[in-house]
Design a protein that fits this description.
alpha/beta
């Protein structure tokens, strides 16, 4: 049989997954392992990098064994939780400290100091990002300054660092390849997204030695071959992208104006702006959408800190039973004119507000409002936060944001047809609901498929995007605008 299968390795925040896809994008076999998160101090989040690597090997072996088609695998595609970073010994391969996860806030004071010094505008100009502990640079500097002897060893070239794609690839290739891709590099605060190279200016600002850093390759590129011990044959790694950029590919968003949102614990929304590097005036992030054959395409990105987590709160915090289905059934029973607004700023507000000190609140309660109305307002909050991002994108990228804008969605909340319709109603744009949820893994597989010659181009690969249902807004415009006005009145009341 032809070598036309692609193995996707999806190293996420809460699990590590492998999926074997055929050329048509059908999943043939799948395996996953949960990932433990450690919280050594308030606001700190860590992962065991060795545990991550062991899980990567285990799930790939399980999938290959289950499929019985090891010889038909053309290539491997890797996608990963972005911004999470690890530093390791170049000789022994041992991490010098647990990986610091993207959610970690231990370097908030460093970011605040740099903001106070007026550095953020220049940082945004070079990297497309804001000064926030979310990104990798301050995490790397913290490791060098808090692990005894680490800074001196880094400057002597004895240590290496990287995001989780880089770490996993280095281990899978037996230490032969120290490389990342442009999408992951663009999330570090160290990468000049215009020049497409590490920035000496940012390395100096964050005090990170260049000797630590990996080579930056395209999303479709040669990342070496698996060490023989992994799968007992030298399968090549031919595609890499950070998780949200991989999902953008998996949703077929390869042309300017196409946008997607993934509704998981939080929500990440990206719009492809093509070769134009849009400068955001709305405090969105400018990031690399993909780099293929040396050509860079960009995206604007907005993040919602709390999406599906708000639905979990209905059960864990307010005692709503039956999980997401129970919460949805309760929300659907709410009075249509209840006027309740929930702002689920449990861990602050994401884009475009970027207010880590904001906290959640419920507004508009009356004597006849109860759990159904609070549940409905919680679902609506996810849609109204999406409206915030859409309005910001419309302002920042009018050239990419066309009249017939469509939001392609995936993730756990998109499984609900009712929420998906509500999303269309409250944002005022049509919603394309994917029939397949693992679009992140699919995107990594598609990039690798291009690299292995399974597809002739990214455009051909994007045609593999899964079937979807399109939902158009049905709510009257005045009702939609009234709901958004109530939201915009409530948000300033929870700001820090």
């Amino acid at each position: 049989m032809a070598q036309d299968l692609i193995l996707a390795l999806d190293q996420g925040t809460t699990s590590t997954r492998a999926i074997l896809f055929d050329r048509e994008g059908r999943a043939l076999a799948e395996a996953s392992r949960p990932l433990r998160q450690d919280y050594p101090h308030d606001g700190w989040v860590e992962h065991d990098a060795e545990e991550i690597y062991a899980a990567c090997v285990a799930v790939m072996r399980e999938v290959v064994e289950a499929s019985g088609r090891a010889e038909d695998i053309a290539a491997i595609g890797v996608t990963n939780q972005r911004e999470t970073v690890v530093v390791w010994d170049r000789q022994t391969g041992r991490p010098i400290h647990p990986a610091i996860v993207w959610q970690d806030r231990r370097t908030a004071d460093v970011c605040a100091k740099l903001k106070a010094e007026g550095r953020e505008a220049r940082v945004a100009e070079v990297t497309g990002l804001l000064l926030d502990p979310y990104f990798s640079a301050t995490k790397i500097a913290w490791l060098l300054d808090h692990v005894p002897g680490a800074r001196a060893r880094a400057e002597a070239g004895e240590l290496l660092c990287g995001t989780m794609d880089c770490w996993v690839i280095w281990r899978l290739t037996g230490g032969a390849v120290h490389a990342t891709d442009a999408t992951n590099a663009s999330r570090t605060l160290l990468f000049d997204i215009g020049a497409q190279d590490w920035s000496d200016e940012m390395l100096a600002l964050f005090n990170v030695p260049a000797a630590l850093l990996p080579k930056v390759l395209d999303c479709v590129d040669d990342y070496g071959v698996l060490d023989h011990e992994v799968l007992e044959r030298p399968v090549p790694i031919r595609g890499v992208a950070g998780d949200q950029q991989a999902a953008l590919m998996g949703q077929g968003c390869v042309s300017p104006g196409l946008m997607k949102a993934t509704y998981g614990t939080g929500c990440f929304m990206l719009i492809n702006t093509g070769e134009e590097k849009c400068v955001s005036r709305s405090r969105l992030l400018t990031t690399v959408a993909a780099r293929v054959n040396g050509k860079t395409t960009y995206a604007l990105e907005g993040s919602i800190f709390v999406a599906g987590a708000a639905i979990q709160w209905l059960g864990e915090g307010l005692g709503v039973t039956g999980g997401p289905r129970g919460a949805e059934a309760l929300a659907r029973a709410a009075k249509s004119d209840h006027g309740v607004v929930v702002v689920p700023a449990f861990t602050g507000l994401g884009a475009p507000w970027w207010d880590a000190g904001a906290r959640g609140a419920i507004f508009g309660l009356t004597r006849d409002a109860g759990l159904p109305e609070i549940a409905a307002a919680t679902y609506d909050a996810c849609a109204l936060q999406s409206r915030d991002l859409i309005e910001a994108m419309r302002a920042d990228a009018p050239g990419a944001f066309g009249e017939a804008a469509q939001l392609r969605i995936d993730g756990g909340m998109s499984r609900s047809a009712w929420f998906s319709q509500r999303l269309a109603d409250l944002t005022g744009v049509s919603v394309r609901r994917s029939s397949y949820q693992e679009t992140t893994a699919l995107g990594a597989a598609l990039f690798a498929g291009v690299g292995a010659g399974v597809y002739a181009s990214v455009e051909e690969a994007a045609e593999v995007s899964p079937a979807a249902e399109t939902l158009k807004p049905t709510l009257e415009a005045h009702e939609r605008e009234a709901a958004y006005a109530r939201w915009l009145d409530a948000v300033p009341r929870v700001r820090s």
